[in-house]
Design brief:
Layout lengths: L4 E7 L5 H6 L4 E2 L2 E8 L11 E4 L4 H10 L6 E4 L11 E6 L2 E6 L1 H7 L5 H11 L2
Parallel strand pairs: 1-3, 1-4, 4-5, 5-6
Antiparallel strand pairs: 2-3, 6-7
Length: 128
């Protein structure tokens, strides 16, 4: 049973998180988006349906992923290094504009359904 609220947590200092925080209250796919800023040390991912991660160290990230293993949790990072160790989507600069990397293994293990259009967008951005 899905709740009526979609809870997204912005973790740590983020470069692009301000715009995300302003989107709190929007309705996405029939669910109200709730976005809150969370200190990495205070993070309880079970209070979040998704994580948008800024400055989190790899050890702290690994611990969090171990703790949340087996639970559907959308993970987006501003650090591409975290895509190699479990984040689903990582923002990156590609040429003149922004892009993102996708970790298909993490998506498959999450149990979340990701729109094929999003995956296609990632692939087209990665092409030379």
């Amino acid at each position: 049973h899905e709740s009526e609220e979609l809870r997204l947590c912005a973790v740590g200092t983020t470069e692009y998180g301000a715009g995300l925080l302003q989107s709190s209250g929007l309705v996405v796919a029939g669910r109200r988006l709730s976005v809150k800023q969370v200190d990495p040390a205070q993070l309880k991912a079970s209070e979040c349906d998704g994580l948008y991660v800024g400055d989190m160290g790899e050890q702290q990230w690994r611990k969090l992923m171990q703790q949340e293993s087996g639970r559907p949790l959308l993970t987006i990072s501003e650090r591409s290094a975290l895509c190699r160790i479990g984040a689903m989507f990582c923002l990156s600069r590609q040429g003149e504009g922004p892009g993102f990397e996708v970790n298909l293994d993490s998506i498959a293990r999450s149990g979340l359904r990701i729109s094929p259009k999003i995956l296609q967008l990632a692939r087209s951005k990665a092409a030379p």
